[in-house]
Specification:
disordered N terminus; 12 strands; single chain; 349 residues; alpha/beta
Length: 349
């Protein structure tokens, strides 16, 4: 027990149903609000503003489109149920450590139909669109296998000539930066669609935490620029267009978050893409500012899975290589079956 009577970990609320984590449903907000207030009184949980050691939990794209079986880009991992199992552990982690987590920030991958990574953006010589999971290379463009679809140009405010130049420039920029080839994804995370929403079990846990701790959660939209991928929450994959004009800017909010909080825990989907690229960009900013800040970052390994599409792509090993690079830079690889006090640098409650 701590001086305020808190156990190191809280029990899981009885309303939490482990078997519904992989389903879509409506959270009963008013009921959960009343239960949150009772929880606060029962376990003497203080407001987040009083935390002496401030912890921020960052959830990358924990949305239906990635986390619910049968949705557009379910992240199965090699186990076949990766994102569902990840979120079962994540929900329990939030509830057990509710009194220790100061703030929760969630990113939301957000797309329209006409974007560079969706099938409609490209055509072959017969006018057909590429199938999902097609990888587009410089050689493909040079040999005319794929080209910009002129029919979407006017809607995007660009000419067919510019669209083609942008596509060629973009694929080259990815290659030069040693990024993944341009991947054509199924239409996913569509703004206004059910796939865009947070997984209900996760949303409910965030809501409960917010009211129990008087901590306003933060939600960040990313990925709406039609001319670039945006795996990383820090910034887009390609910053400049073919004529040097800025497509978008990188954000310094994540770096500032690491500066402001004592610990930043990061997890979400997919480990090989949006999580890995977010952490990679964050690490670059940390090194440019103060390399010692890397020690404040904790990567919750068992709450993220890589993209695996049997017979098409498997990014498991690529994700592991990146995570080892992050660990070598001073970040911590941790798991939910470890108490927070067992994590390096985290003091007792």
């Amino acid at each position: 027990m701590s001086e305020k009577g808190l156990t190191r970990e809280l029990p899981i609320p009885t309303f939490f149903d482990l078997e519904r984590v992989g389903e879509v449903w409506r959270a009963p907000y008013q009921e959960r609000a009343a239960q949150a207030r009772e929880w606060t009184q029962t376990y003497q949980i203080s407001p987040a503003a009083e935390d002496r050691f401030r912890i921020c939990l960052v959830l990358i794209d924990v949305q239906n489109t990635f986390c619910i079986p049968g949705f557009e880009l379910f992240v199965s991992g090699r186990s076949g149920m990766g994102a569902v199992d990840d979120n079962k552990r994540l929900c329990q982690f939030i509830y057990r450590n509710l009194a220790r987590l100061t703030h929760i920030k969630a990113t939301l991958d957000t797309h329209y139909a006409m974007q560079i990574f969706h099938p409609v953006f490209l055509v072959d010589q017969q006018g057909r669109h590429p199938q999902p999971y097609t990888l587009v290379t410089r050689e493909d463009l040079q040999k005319g296998r794929w080209s910009f679809n002129p029919a979407v140009g006017e809607m995007l405010g660009i000419s067919p000539e510019y669209g083609q130049r942008h596509l060629e420039h973009y694929v080259k920029a990815l290659e030069d930066r040693q990024k993944f080839d341009l991947t054509i994804w199924p239409y996913h995370a569509m703004l206004g669609g059910i796939g865009h929403a947070l997984v209900p079990s996760i949303e409910e846990a965030i809501f409960f935490h917010g009211l129990a701790r008087y901590s306003q959660p933060e939600f960040e939209i990313k990925g709406r620029n039609p001319l670039t991928e945006h795996y990383s929450a820090v910034g887009p994959e390609v910053i400049d267009g073919p004529d040097g004009k800025k497509l978008a800017e990188k954000s310094k909010e994540f770096l500032q978050m690491v500066i402001d909080f004592d610990a930043v825990i990061i997890c979400g989907q997919a480990k090989s893409h949006c999580v890995a690229w977010t952490v990679s960009d964050l690490l670059a900013d940390i090194r440019a500012n103060d390399a010692g800040l890397a020690g404040k970052v904790y990567l919750l390994e068992d709450c993220s899975s890589p993209v695996v599409v049997p017979g098409a792509v498997d990014y498991t090993e690529a994700a592991e290589v990146e995570y080892q690079r992050f660990a070598q830079a001073g970040m911590h690889l941790v798991r939910t079956d470890q108490a927070l006090e067992e994590w390096p640098g985290i003091p007792p409650a």
